[in-house]
Amino acid sequence: MTAREAASTAPADDDAPELWPVPVPECDVCALLAEDRETARANGHTLTVRSCNAVIAGHPHKRKPDR
Q1: Is 60 left (phi over 0), alpha (psi -120 to 50) or beta?
Q2: Distances (CA, A) of 49 to 2, 16, 44, 58, 66
Q3: Has this prediction a pTM greater than 0.85?
Q4: Rounded Cα distance, 65 and 27, in Å
Q5: What pLDDT, in 10s, does the model give residues 57-66?
């Protein structure tokens, strides 16, 4: 097993879940990504967890104008 393979299969529990991006309520895309992230975390797929986090953090949402 290479170092890269070992890193990609390391348990994701080392990442602090409280620092993970929070899915926007009522967004189907965010909900699916959060579900995929949890499945990946449970299976120790660190790279998938990080990928889901990056997409959730960068997923655009329209904001209502402040009035």
Answers
A1: beta
A2: 20, 11, 9, 14, 34
A3: no
A4: 18
A5: 998 876 665 5
Q: Which residues contact 15 (CB under 8 A, 6 or more apart)?
A: 46, 49, 50
Q: Note the helical H segments in 1-67.
A: 3-8, 28-42, 46-58
Instruction: Convert the pLDDT of each residue in 26-64 to its tens digit.
Output: 899 999 999 999 999 999 999 999 999 999 999 887 666
User: Where do we find the tokens 């994701």?
Assistant: 12
Burial of 36-59, coded b for 16+ CB within 10 Å and e otherwise, reads: bbeebbeeebbebbbebbeebeee
